[in-house]
Amino acid sequence: EYNFREFSTCEATIQMLQKAAADGVETAFQRAAEMKACPIGADSACCKHCAMGPCRLNPKDPYSKVGVCGATIDTIAARNFSRMVAAGCAAHTDHGMTMLDVFREVVNGRIADYKIKDEEKLRSVAASIGIEVEGRETMEIAKDLYEELERTYTQVEGEIPFAKRVPEKTLETWRKHGIVPRGAMREIMEIMHRSHMGVDQDYENIVKQCSRTALADGWGGSMVATEISDILFGTPKPHVAGVNMGFLREDHVNIIVHGHEPNLFESMIDSVNDPDLIAKAKEAGAAGINLLGMCCSGAEVLSRHGVPHAGNFMSTEVVIATGAADAMAVDVQCIKQALVQMSECYGTKFFTTNPRAKIEGAQHVEFHEHEPRKCTNKVVEMAIERFRNRPGRVVIPQRRDMGVHGFSHEYINYMLGGTFRGSYTPLNDNIINGRIRGVAGVVGCTNPRVKQDWYHVELVKELIKNNVLVVQTGCSQIALAKAGLMKPDAAVLAGDGLAEVCETVGMPPVLGCGSCVDNSRILIACAEMVRVGGLGDKISDLPVAGAAPEYMSEKALCIGQYFVASGVYTVFGVTFPSLEGTKFHKLMFEGLEEMGFGKWGFATDPYEMARMMIDHIDKKREALGIMG
Ligand code: SF4
Ligand code: FE2
What we know:
The protein is an alpha/beta fold. The protein contains 23 helices and 16 strands.
């Protein structure tokens, strides 16, 4: 009864949606179609922060009523928005803190399974926040770095360490408005307090603390997650790698890791390469063990090690319908509860691994960083068992898309500058001479309320056609990789100027940077563009823009808010939790820019979105005097 082509443009996903439907199994696409979003909630016109309510205002006439306590639409929307940002920030910072926990144990010599893999990165991160590195032992630097970075979370007064990486003038704007983050825990605590019933009831003041909280993610929790992961597991460099479900192999034991924390994945890589486990797989009749990623930790190991990626957020259910997934191991974030039921239908072994994220009905095999292989070996063994007794028919969509992945900001430096201590000068030069019009970050989730991948792909195509270089992370990156835009030959789809740069350097017009926490790489790239000079003296001067056209999570809203607070025009699609015509909306979509920040934009049409972003880029070019 459904036309699956309206749900997705991903051929593998469409094929598996058909199979799942034929097997009598439903997915989030059908559930979304059947459950209309609440119109009051979607506009953020309801409040449930106390037992005098919940209170519902009228979205069609938002100032006609107030809540029982007297809260206006602006207070209600600002509080709702801030709490979503707080949740998003908490997710990224808790992830970052886990990475820092692993780092501490490595530094203290209490973990044998991980080590400092990228000393160069360790030194450069340490130097960037003022730690002495010359002539010092790696472990001494690492100890200091741990202590410094811990302040990102726990500091109660002062500025988070990575504030040192923020361009001076941008930092001045933050200081002027009192929004330089102290420590993530403090900022999250304060915004939760202030958005409680009867506390902060001035939407402008709420939005200030909301920005401060979001910045504690972008320049804090997320940036620590990225930098520590690079130090422990290696900084990505470009390499050819594949995405899509065709990388499942019928004659292999297939294991999918889906989630966000790279430590689980890194140990799983070790487990699937363990000769004893490979021998066991062969005994069970398999040709070998095949490991794939999904979602963000998948995007990270795709970027770092070239592990194939099976698909983004809206493909995590249907990949199980292939019947080929012998095991799926998940950790935290973006794990649909429905995966348990789906796995039961197809006999896939489904494991939760993180004490923070258990799911009713799932088998929990806890991952401990001190003995990581206990968990990952067990998952492999159970996957081999399932392979031996595969219950049903296996159908693997024959889609395999190759592309170049792994553009860390260090490598973008190198690639454009020609030496490893290169710089963004050539990028700035190409922006100034007009070959490249500007840079756009296109990131974020997929959402079953809109056609999967279509908005990402159409938006990016439109941007590169107009000579805008695109950088990507997360599920958006996987959408474009499936569409074949991460190959150098995709330069034919770019405008003449961008195509010329791509051909000279040998790079694709779309650069994949990794997972959602790796949006911090984009922030650092922006800071570098400012530092190199010629494009103004703060991030809000740069001809750049951001977009998350198919977002769904609170984490995405937090990312959007930290880009806005950093000075970037950021356009979201699907829906936006505010009402046009309200003061809160006006602040977010106009006022913040007047105060020296970036601002929000919203559109549901990808071409309109591209036009808005390009107009903004042109406006910035004009202000810099580099038009034409
Ligand atoms: Fe209603 Fe105010 Fe309570 Fe919100 S805080 S539920 S608006 S009474
Ligand atoms: Fe993510």
